[in-house]
Amino acid sequence: FQADIVADIAEPYNGAECKKCGGELELIRAIEFGHIFKYDHFYSEHHDAYFVDQDGEKKLMYMGAYGIGIGRAIATVVETHHDDKGIIW
């Protein structure tokens, strides 16, 4: 077996050093309320989606998507505004 991808992977912990800036990591709880996907040319290649730039050149579109669902929004509110009896209105 030959590994094609090799990386320095570790589980983060409070106080660990940030490999990008050298600062100290702080672990906090969070909720993913929405998300964004960068597709680049994946779908534009499959659907022949082009645009003409200011120089008149035909180029593939860069594509992406986002998502914020009503269920996710409600779950976020309930998760952050509840007690042992249920939702705090």
TrEMBL record:
Keywords from the named record: Ligase
Keyword Plastid assigned: no
Keyword Magnesium part of the UniProt annotation: no
A GO CC term assigned to this protein in UniProt: cytosol
Transmembrane segments: none
GO BP: prolyl-tRNA aminoacylation
Domain of life where this protein originates: Bacteria
GO molecular function annotation: proline-tRNA ligase activity
PANTHER family according to UniProt: MITOCHONDRIAL RIBOSOME PROTEIN L39/PROLYL-TRNA LIGASE FAMILY MEMBER, PROLINE--TRNA LIGASE
Protein name per UniProt: Proline--tRNA ligase
Annotated organism of origin: Candidatus Dojkabacteria bacterium
